[in-house]
Design a protein that fits this description.
Layout (H helix, E strand, L loop, with lengths): L1 E4 L5 E9 L7 E3 L2 E7 L3 H8 L4 E4 L2 E8 L5 E5 L3 E8 L2 H8 L5 E14 L7 E15 L10 E4 L6 E8 L3 E4 L6 H11 L2
Length: 193
């Protein structure tokens, strides 16, 4: 995840929400504990089928901070995985970014098409072959670990909402150049250079 703090009190966030063709840590699913792998092309097809995908905070449906419909969120699948770029002005998220408190990404999926392969001495491998991408989310208050997932049965339906989180590092940069020459000189003097 890369975060650019802008002078207009907005932030630009870019990075990978999830990598394709890479096996996850153990995750809890409706089919039990498995390792999971999203096949290449699944996110591309999900994006083609979606009219609008919101970006939330910590999977809270009412905390929408960007969306594809108004172009504040762009999503695409490339050879690495689901890539996102978002412009966010919501005060809490901007403050969390400035304080280095954004912990990573996650996503929610429904209508999952999968195949589970049994393996000896390992957890089964669940291959995600299709899905409806429900949302992507920024993780602030939760712990971003792919194994920290949840499965929720939506009220009144037989549709499961599964959420997944991807570990990532956060890089924060400002749009203005910062002069570190004074500090660099102090370091050189301290080293005796």
């Amino acid at each position: 995840m890369k975060i650019e703090v802008r002078t207009d009190n907005s932030i630009k966030i870019t990075g990978y929400v999830n990598a394709v063709e890479r096996e996850s840590k153990p995750v809890a699913t409706p089919k039990g504990m498995v390792n999971e792998l999203v096949e290449s092309g699944v996110f591309h097809r999900a994006l083609d089928a979606a009219d609008d995908i919101p970006m939330t905070v910590d999977h809270i449906p009412t905390k929408i901070v960007a969306r594809t419909a108004d172009n504040t969120l762009q999503l695409k699948e490339d050879n690495i995985g689901l890539w996102a770029e978002a412009t966010v002005t919501e005060e809490r998220v901007v403050r969390a970014a400035k304080e280095g408190k954004l912990k990573g990404w996650s996503f929610g999926m429904t209508n999952v098409l999968d195949a589970v392969e049994e393996r000896t001495e390992k957890l089964p491998l669940r291959r995600i072959k299709g899905m409806a991408l429900d949302h992507v989310t920024l993780v602030i208050d939760k712990i971003p670990a792919y194994s920290a997932t949840s499965v929720e049965l939506r009220a009144g339906t037989e549709e499961y909402l599964e959420t997944r989180t991807f570990d990532s590092t956060v890089e924060v940069s400002a749009t203005k150049n910062v002069d570190y020459s004074k500090y660099e000189e102090r370091i050189k003097k301290a080293k005796g250079e």
